[in-house]
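Hi R.,

Here's the chain you asked about this morning:
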Amino acid sequence: MKKLFFLTVLILTITVVNAQKQYSYPMPQYTPTEGNLEARKEFQDMKFGMFIHWGIYSVLADGEWVMLLKKIKADNYGRLADFFDPEEFNAEEWVKLAKDAGMKYITITTRHHDSFSMFDTDASDFNIVDATPYGKDPLKELAEACKKEGIKLNFYYSLLDWRRDDYKNGKKGDAAAWTKYVNFMKSQLTELLTNYGEIGCIWFDGHWDQKEADWKYDEIYSLIHKLSPNTLIANNHHIQPIPGDDIQTFERDLPGENHGGYSDGVQVSQLPLESCATMAGKWGYSIYDKKFKSTKKLIHFLVNAAGKNGNLLLNVGPMPNGKIQPEFVKTLGEIGDWTSKYGESIYGTRGNEVKSQTWGTVTKKDNTLYVHVLESTNEPYIFVSGFEGKVKSASLFDGKKIKFKKVKEGLFLYPGEDFDTSIDGIIKLTIR
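And the predicted structure, written out as tokens:
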């Protein structure tokens, strides 16, 4: 019987390990610097950021994947650069919009899968300075505006490339071509980390295009750690974190969930967590997109992410003229109204202190718990299942004291008839 038991445990262990998606190539041991660890904490405190997908694909107004989905040949696609002249781009307006919404950092696409670089680079002529009538580097202006307003600037960088021959040939097994492509990426990353001041994070994407490839993360990560030890690394690789990752990302999902289909077999780690999501359907600007998410839904996403100890990176796709479309501006303004009033229940908090509930979630800061009631219970009480702490006092967010009762199974809260849960009813608990 004992042999059968241990055999069963072994089989289950192997099954769990195999179910977790891993990177197959060795990575050097990584010991974060003190500054890196402090940057991780700062990242967790910020909670809310703006994702920006912007490139020449915005000219076609059909999302950032238009080149691949419409099967546009590389030469023809390259002509879009001739029409990309975002004269209405204003970095200060973008940063102010993010800041007023309550966002603490911005992550912008420097090079997406279409190979076009949105910055001044010597590694490729296919960039906004050399290939467009605009002829300027918007990242320079954005870096200056972010520094002025105290917003952390992060850079998204695509690992895959739909246009470059060295990537295509490397994908087919040409080792020399692959080495050339990796060196190209290292050249651009060096530029990004040395020409724009302090960068909070490099946010990689595209690993999933070649799940079994040796992406040379040992070289790429080591370069980043050497050039900028405090810069965090996030990799949207859809696998378990690897040595050198500082942030674990979840695409279109909350940590631990897999509604979007990108996190199958991925377990939540102890790293800082971040969920990225769009305000509509596409990431890049699309004139056809009608799937605009409501202000309430986006606030719920932010709150639920915090309750699961994560951040929300919320995407906008600017138009080809450099403006952010009015639907996004309006919604971000409404989110800003909420964060300006209730931000203390999000910023600087940690989650997973109490498991998520059917009605909402809980965040914690020091000796205060914020009970976020996102859905009405239709009961005269809120029951916090599994709560084990000792409560000193309970009140509504405005300070009005309310009754509570601790039982073995959890905690009963009695907020009263006027408790408003139309967006997020918040109860503050002071714990011993």
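DSSP finds eleven helices and 15 strands in the chain.

Let me know if you need anything else.
M.
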